[in-house]
Specification:
By secondary structure, this protein is mainly α. The chain has two domains: 68 residues, Arc Repressor Mutant, subunit A (Orthogonal Bundle); 41 residues. 63% of the residues lie in helices and 7% in strands. The chain is built from five helices and two strands, in the order αααββαα. It has a two-stranded antiparallel sheet. Strand 1 and strand 2 form a beta hairpin. Helix 1 packs across helix 3. The mean pLDDT is 92.
Length: 123
């Protein structure tokens, strides 16, 4: 779990994203329990219903599932679901970059060079 929540972003979305991050980073493995809504509520000093909304979102996406009477668990294949979801989100945001590049008259070759320069700085 993240230590603190960000201002300006829905709390339930941050809870959902925090669990996703923990799965991607290997802190939560498939078939492992996630914190309960009460644990989220206590940790972040929020209403349990808000935490439940974040967990419900994960359930709807097939990332976690409920073991009746026991709690919520990371689903098999959850990491791949999250990766696909985030790739799609990245693609959608990248389409906006392409639109802006076109509006600025940045050629495809120049855009590719910018990406390559960015990769070199990230290494």
């Amino acid at each position: 779990m993240k230590a603190i929540l960000e201002e300006g972003k829905s709390i339930y979305l941050q809870i959902s994203q925090s669990v996703e991050d923990d799965i991607l980073n290997g802190l939560l493995a498939e078939e492992e329990p996630i914190p309960s809504t009460n644990q989220f509520a206590k940790h972040y000093a929020i209403n349990p219903a808000t935490a439940a909304k974040g967990v419900s979102l994960l359930t709807e996406e097939g990332i976690v599932y409920k073991k009746r009477g026991i709690g919520m668990y990371v689903a098999t294949g959850a990491k791949e679901i999250i990766l696909n979801k985030r790739r799609n989100e990245f693609y959608e945001s990248f389409k906006e970059v392409i639109r802006q590049a076109e509006a600025l008259g940045v050629a495809k070759k120049e855009l590719v060079q910018m990406i390559e320069r960015g990769q070199n700085h990230a290494e």
